[in-house]
Structure formats: structure tokens, C-alpha cells
Amino acid sequence: MTDPIQRQIDPDDEAALLDSIDRWIERDVRPVVMYHDHNDIWPAELVAQMAEMGLFGATIGQEYGGLGLPATTYAKIITRISSYWMALTGIVNSHLIMAAAVERFGTEAQKTKWLSQFASGAIRGGLALTEPDAGTDLQGIRTTAVRDGDDYVINGTKTWISNGIQGSCFALLVKTDPKAEPRYKGMSFFLAPKGDGFSVGKKFDKLGYKAIDSAELVFDNYRIPAENLIGEVEGQGFFQATGGLELGRINVAARGVGLAEGALRLSTEYAQIRKTMGKPIAQHQAIQLKLGEMVTRTEAARLLVAQAAQAYDRGERCDMEAGMAKFFASEAALSNAEEGMRIFGGYSYSKEYEIERFYRDAPLMCIGEGTNEMQRMIIAKQWLKRNPA
Ligand SMILES: Cc1cc2nc3c(=O)[nH]c(=O)nc-3n(C[C@H](O)[C@H](O)[C@H](O)COP(=O)(O)OP(=O)(O)OC[C@H]3O[C@@H](n4cnc5c(N)ncnc54)[C@H](O)[C@@H]3O)c2cc1C
């Protein structure tokens, strides 16, 4: 398998970039989060601004028009945005995993054709892996691609696909040999732009992660040229899709840190304003115990994400590090959101306060990019491999 792409950034350049992200969040994002979240409205203006800032090419190489950022810097950007509005990062994240699959495993012709359009945001999309009967068990997918001359004909249904409505191109995992054993050998990965035979099914109405579209994608005799097969070799799809998940897990972990940090920030502010028994609740030991745990979890999660991202940037295999970061940071997000609800008391239940959004958004981090049940098993397997008896 191709190694992850190694990248570095000058510390001053990173600081300037993060500063511009902070200013954008303060000026343009914070004022509109509640409106978009409560009304489930796709944030067209923010998406245009993200494209202008180059975020749709954040991890794409500069030779293809991207910013060429290392995973460490990208994770910091994602954490900052997520500490105010996690869902917004979903519009960029799976798009960049699609791009990473092309950059790591695509042919030169595929990189030249697609990457600059992905980087500018002219073509945006995501990752289409999950099916109604196959999420964790990816090798059980049923969507098929059958070769027909210079084309493939694709039939099947994908579900829960982020950016499914607003995106126009998806990295699509299919079976080119449904009878292959082991099953992963029959899997291939395509770049699938919307067109005849490719339609959007239902849009999901969700608990949280509002404003970003999650939809079903239906392929009915959808025909694409063979040149859209990533790497132009059949049978590599499972490795190409799961290879990208290392970066995906670092992404989700960075979002988890952001959620944990945001819930902590809101709780810290509120605990110093809200008074009971004649003093701010932050002065009560019961609340201090919560804040002490929340800040520790947040910082531990941040360090695990940095460790995983640094390993990725060095081009090392980092499924164990990315798994630990994803598992711990997403659980930290969930715990901090719940503790935040308790700190806000009855007001946590009002949509006038932001903490309830964190409580609705956090559980997704424990499910996406491999559930936390699977993460623990991946971590243990790697751990045992690295520590033979
Ligand atoms: C908002 C949202 C956005 C999403 N975006 C995308 C996207 O853009 N692209 C995409 O392809 N998918 C996407 N997904 C799908 C997501 O990746 C899957 O939901 C996830 O992989 C889990 O699969 P599942 O829902 O089928 O659960 P299942 O696989 O049915 O798992 C159910 C439970 O069983 C456990 N379990 C399953 N197998 C095992 C095992 N072998 N050992 C132990 N425990 C096990 C799981 O951990 C889980 O607790 C999204 C989902 C959501 C909710």
C-alpha cells in the first residue's frame, strides 16, 4: 500500500493560518450557527468562504492546487471549528478523504484530472461506503460494478452518505467480484460523479449533525468510464477505502477534541456566572470536580490526536494511534457534553443555550469512521502484534 503523504509546515505559517481561521469563526461562523442548526439549513455562504480559504484543498498537495497541509495542522483547524460548530467540518472532512484516496492510490492522469477541482471546491463530495445492510461489516456490501467494454455499470444503494445531496462526486466502494474469497479481494473503489442512473434517495432527519446533508444514494444501471476506477486496478478497493480511514479517524478525533473543548468553554463561562447559595456554582466542589475532569479529558484527547497526526505526517503506519485518538477523543466529547448539560441544569434543556447542540452532536463521533467498539478491537490487535509473547 502507498504510504501516507508526508508534509511539513513552517510554525509561523501555521500560526498565521490558525489566526485567520479564528478570525473567520468569530466574524462569520459564530453568529449563524444556531440559525443553521435549529433550522437544518445548509450553510451556503460559509461553504463559499471555506472554498475561498482553500479548505477544500487543505490536505491536497500544492502541486494540485491544494494547501498541502500536514495532518497535524489540519487537525488543529478542525478542532478550532468544531469547538464552535462540529457539523461544519463534515462538509470538508469526507471530501478530503475522497481526495486523499485519489492522491495516494490514483494514477497520474486521475490526479491531474480531479485533484485541482477538488482543491478549489469546484467539485465537492464525500465517501460512499455504507449500505443499508453493511456498515461495520464493509466487506458485506452488495453494490456491484460490472465491466462492459470501456465502462462499468453500477447497481446498488449507499446510505447515510454525508454531503449526499450537496456533493457532486463520491468515492464509491463496490464489488467487482462478488464471489471472491476472502471477500475484500473482490472490492474496488471508483470516483462517481452524479449523472444518469445516479440519484439521491431519502434525506435523513437526524438528532444532531444538522445542516449537513446525510442521504441515501441510489445507483440504477449507472454507467461510468473504466478510467474512474481509482488506480485503474480492480480488487484494491477495500485497502484504498480503509487506508484513507487513518486520516478519517484523525479527523473525527480532532472533531471530538473540538466538541470536548467547546462544551468545557461553555460550562466554564456559565459556572462562573450562575449563582446558587450566594456564590457562583464554580465555587461548589461538585462543579469543580466536573470541570477538573473535563479539562483533563480535553487535553489528553488533544495530545493523542497530535501523536496520531505526527505519526501520519512521518508516513508511519498509525492505525493504533489514530484508533486510540478517535476512541478517546470521541468519548471525551460525549462525556464533556453530558457534564455540560448537568452544569447548565434546567437551562441545558433550552434551545436558547448552545450546550444542547454539543449533547446532540457528540454521539456521532463514537459511531462514524469505525465505531468505538471496533476501535478498541483494532487498538488491541495492533498492541498484541507489537508486543508478541
Ligand atoms: C450522521 C452520519 C453520517 C455518516 N456519514 C457517512 C458517510 O459519509 N459515508 C459512509 O460511508 N458512511 C457514513 N455513515 C455511516 C457510518 O459509517 C456507519 O453508521 C457506521 O460505520 C456503523 O455502521 P452501522 O450503522 O451499519 O452499524 P452496525 O455495523 O450495524 O453496528 C451496530 C453495532 O454493532 C457493533 N458491531 C458491529 N460489528 C461488530 C463486531 N464485529 N464486533 C463488535 N461489535 C460490532 C457496532 O460497534 C455497533 O455498536 C454515517 C453515519 C451517520 C449516523
The CA-CA distance between the termini, in Å, is 28 Å
Say how many strands there are: 9
Domains counted in the coordinates: how many? 3
Strand content: 5-15%
Order of helices and strands: HHHHHEEEEEEEHEEHHHH
- Main pleated-sheet profile: 4 strands, antiparallel
Please state the overall shape, judged from the principal axes of the Cα atoms.
globular
Structural class: alpha+beta
Lateral arrangement of strands in the main beta sheet: 2-3-7-6
Low confidence ranges? none
> What's the CATH topology name of the largest domain?
Butyryl-CoA Dehydrogenase, subunit A, domain 3
GO molecular function, one term: flavin adenine dinucleotide binding
Domain Acyl-CoA dehydrogenase/oxidase C-terminal: 235-382
Domain Acyl-CoA oxidase/dehydrogenase middle: 127-221
Cofactor: FAD
Task: Name the features.
Butyryl-CoA Dehydrogenase, subunit A, domain 3; 389 residues; binds flavin-adenine dinucleotide; 9 strands; 3 domains; four-stranded antiparallel beta sheet; three-stranded mixed beta sheet; Butyryl-CoA Dehydrogenase, subunit A, domain 2
